[in-house]
Amino acid sequence: MTVGGRDTRARHAALPSAMREAVDDFADHLARVRSRSAHTVRAYVADVVSLLDHAVRAGCAEPAEVDLAVVRSWLAKQRTMGAARTSLARRAAAARTFSAWAHRNGVFATDVAAALASPRAHRELPTVLRADQAAALVEAPARAPQAPRRAVEGAPTSSTTTAPPPVSHTGPAPADEPGPPGARSPVDDADEAVRLRDRVLLELLYGTGVRVSEACGLDVADIDHGRRVVRVLGKGGRERSVPYGVPAQRAIDDWLRHGRPTLVAPGSGDALLLGAKGGRLNPTTARRIVRGYVDDLGLPRVSPHGLRHSAATHLLEGGADLRAVQELLGHSSLGSTQIYTHVSVERLRAAYRQAHPRA
Fold it and tell me: What pTM was computed for the model?
């Protein structure tokens, strides 16, 4: 089992065998039963290892000896070490999840953390772009006079400093005749292919509001050209269908017909979005691509998740129902979606303060 960074591994190895076994079983439960992402599993395991390491230092030799006082003293120590409220809230949530699991599986005699109170995480309003800024960002790959930043992906750049010619589009396929994935009319320049790929990436992130990991995980077969929807596999293995618009359709058709065949390699598989070397586009690389275009345009610093925030905010401002936005974003709880109503209210307040004579 992977338990995270070097410090976490060292603490895990130093735990008594019964505690190590409990941590391993808990990680397996999160990954296999609850279908949590690898990132979530690592974060929860790191917190639980930290808790049990603290318990051992407090004199506990077995998991059953951990009680509410130990959990509270662990959180208090985190607070004195300067942990932020959001970090404390996450660690308390990890402790409660582990305690509930341990009680159900006989590791703890009682659910020791059930009554644990934790500071409410302060939820800052996400940074969102204006609609015109988002449009400029999405269209940036087609308008950029210079070659895309292929060095971001570790691919060799061209030896010439001359800007490549504009991408030659043959026009989008008609709505009832989508571009077949097997169509082969590749562009000659790999930089142009990367630019077509970047346009699809940005269209998907803003046009559908999908997470960057979801966008990078898409396969060619996940695109339903006829209905203009994309099948997305989200958190917890939940699948949803998300519609996309005509601009995204054009970008996808151009990429599949002219861009992807240029970058495709033996290891590409069915991946929709490819890196410069032909493998599936990595979310870390996708974040760097977005950051590069944002910086080039001088826009407020937003990440791919910021484009997701922007999409949700613009949908609500345009009159979309909160439940519909919840479904589009793949939120399991409506509470996760309601933050975007706060964004709209704050923007309304800002407009009021700027424009109303009695503000």
Answer: 0.62
